[in-house]
Amino acid sequence: MRTGIVRTVTSAAAGAALGAGLLLGANPAGAQEWPARPITIVLPLAAGSGLDTIARLYADKLQGALGKPVVIDNRPGAALMLAAQAVAAAAPDGYTLTVATTSAMAINPVLYKQINYDPEKNFAPIALYVKSPFILAVNPDLPINNVKELIAAAKARKDPFNYSSPGAGVAQHLSIEYMKNRFDLQMTHVPYRNTPQSILDIASGHVHLGFIEAGAGLPLIKDGKLRPLAVSSATRLPVLPDVPPFAEASGAADFEAVSWHALFAPAGTPAPIVERLHKEMKTIMAQPEMREKVAQLGLIPFETPSPAELRVYLASEREKWGSLVRRIGLEGSQ
Prior knowledge:
Layout: E1 3-5, H1 11-19, E2 22-27, E3 30-34, E4 39-43, H2 50-66, E5 70-74, H3 82-88, E6 96-101, H4 102-111, E7 123-132, E8 134-138, H5 147-156, E9 161-165, H6 171-183, E10 187-191, H7 195-203, E11 209-213, H8 214-222, E12 227-231, H9 246-250, E13 259-266, H10 271-285, H11 288-296, E14 300-301, H12 307-327
Parallel strand pairs: 4-5, 4-6, 9-10
Antiparallel strand pairs: 1-5, 2-3, 6-13, 7-13, 7-14, 8-11, 8-12
Helix pairs in contact: 2-10, 4-12
């Protein structure tokens, strides 16, 4: 576990921020100023990951805006669920937050036999600020140059194409299954134990294709060892501006298969705290320097909906991915 204060604000800045703080009835003893002490953001991935890098960037700006240190607590493990479990059980006082992804909040609740939190009832959404698209990539020896050619070839083949992913039930696997379901395709899943090998085996020709993580796949794409056909987001990926969204390339206008990063507090956190955090995150993530740094990581900056709108979006994501997990027979398989 790696825990550290991102930055210490000056006493003058802290005093100014505290002077402007909200008076909230946040404990039984009566109203108190928030924040009155450091805030911890529990992350589900290790230090150095893209999720961690972005969180440290905005944590630094959050503590400047709030006048108290913002601490990053990395708790990887349990298929991205360890952090969520910890924060679901934390006091709803605005001092413990978590970042969660599509897997923890929309896929794993159906994929796993048992989890120790309820993604709908145990969390108050604050901001969804990044979408993490995948790149549909094929081995360059295949005579396929775009999505429509891939769909046509898949329908015409006697032996199905095979595709790789880092494991059954992960977002990359389900993204291909989502494509298969939309276009009535037959393809064979080849699960791997890690992301790098699942991508390298497309480049080497052991498997035909896959939806791959941008950060891990870009070097092979630039070297001509993978051919990108589309990105799974509704918009283009800044680092691959010439590669179309799958929705555009396929004609399926509503197709989107992304992971996302969202900031949550425990359910029951006072609404003024949630609204303050939402406002600060919206301001921070709109800054050009933050958008540029997000884009450099192969991710897409996203203007967060309001907390109420975010609840609606998260419910649609749970339905979308949960129903797919059930359809392909993976419910409770983990």
